[in-house]
# Entry
Amino acid sequence: MLSVGEDINKLIAEDTLRKNSVVKVERYNTTSSNGKHFVLILEVTILDNPADKIGTPLKLTDEQINEQVNSTPVSMTTQSTVTNMNMSTGGLAGVNTGAPGNIYPIQSLNPYQNKWTIKARVTKKSDIRTWSNARGEGKLFSLELMDDSGEIRCTGFTDAVDRFYNMIEQGQVYYISRCSLKTANKQYTAIKNDYEMTINNDTSIVKCEEADTGVPDVKLDLTRISDLESCENNSFVDIMGIATQIGDIQNITARASGKQLIKREVKLQDRSGAAVSLTLWGKEAEGFDAGLSAPVVCVKAAKVSDFGGRSLSVSFNSTLQVNPDNNISHELKGWYEASGKDESVRQMSSSQGVGGGSMETPHKTFLEIKGANVQDKAEYFCNQAAIVFVKKDNCMYQACPSADCNKKVIQESGSEYRCEKCDKIYPNFKYRLMLTVKLSDFTGNEWVTCFQETAEKLLGVTADELGQQKDTNESEFDKTMNRVNFNSYNFKIRARLETYMDESRLKCTALSVDPVDCISYSKKLIEEIKLLEG
# Structure
């Protein structure tokens, strides 16, 4: 049986390798199972692409193949087998760690095989995630594995987390056997493989102690930033660029779940003459060194979004590297230092600026945003506006005290509060702000909603402090709410058209609020006046 690796599949998809092509096989891998022989072609050189078939090649029968295999010595450069392994370093109690047979290429695996071993590098190791539902609780982690032939995702649940999570290191090479194989759920992975692996009770994972493992590092199929326009929304790409701008960490509240999220915006530029905004989340956002000067940033499986033109984000499928030690990274850094930093750049991300409130986010008046024909797709803009009214009614609610839940609780009796989402009763709650204010600029007014962090920054008190004032000292509560009236601020706002009861209206949410920087604002006005003067 003959199959080809991921790189050759790409040549076929691009119609570079086609029917009747004459090729020289540079690298291949062979395995045998139950009397059947498998050949995986890893690398070829295309010698010619004639229109017609050359000669009259004949297909070998199984008998002829067996005869050739049995009479020809096996070359160690073409067939990967393992004859000796140090089991003391990788084996765990209760795990059968017998030496594997032939090493199978990842690309050749399918659910109909049961006796196989792969030799693969762990290119990504996820954090442990937990779940809780009506069927119970559990935990899981996932790995992304790679060899010469391709990649595959591997997931371990509950018991597998306890057995293997701490022993597996990202970047190391392991012998893995006796996992279950099933059709891959493309919703949860960006890996180009039709199958994925699940660790079970019989699985063996043993670290490869060879000095030269023969397994490559992360494989990249890099996309130029200027080519992102042709990429589909929600697709995944490998990208490498210079971080020309690094934004501050922002704390936001997810609209759907109410969870607190951490993000950071980074602007990437490459040799294609284009730049794009990359969003980092969670630990990647916190761990990114903002003090680095124009670092090279590489992301495998960055998610493409049509938000604000074109933008990228690091998802749970992505692998982030900063200043990777390879030739492509060094060449890119050298180009940027020599000439790239002075070249003009086309911005692919037009609607959202790095840092959450940069001048790249367009400044628009309320009149302009109302005339912009905003539809389901959100419009982001900055505006310097004054607060003319604050709604005190329903400005906060009693929420679940759990760190991962912000749903409204129901008071059961006395000091007991029930969260229907968590299905638990708590002795307390936390306050969450949902402040509605009317903003006014010189063109008109607009109602804007400020959620937790934005409202706390605006009012100068925490939600719990404001709740305490409302419960015990209403005059102090009124004073806190009134002191922001008729003060001007710089707002970054998201506008979206929403329909309720067949009536459409503009829904505006404040994403950030800052005091007015009079000097910067004056300079901006001067520049606009100069443009008007020509």
Summary: The two ends are 72 Å apart (CA to CA). The longest helix spans residues 518-533.
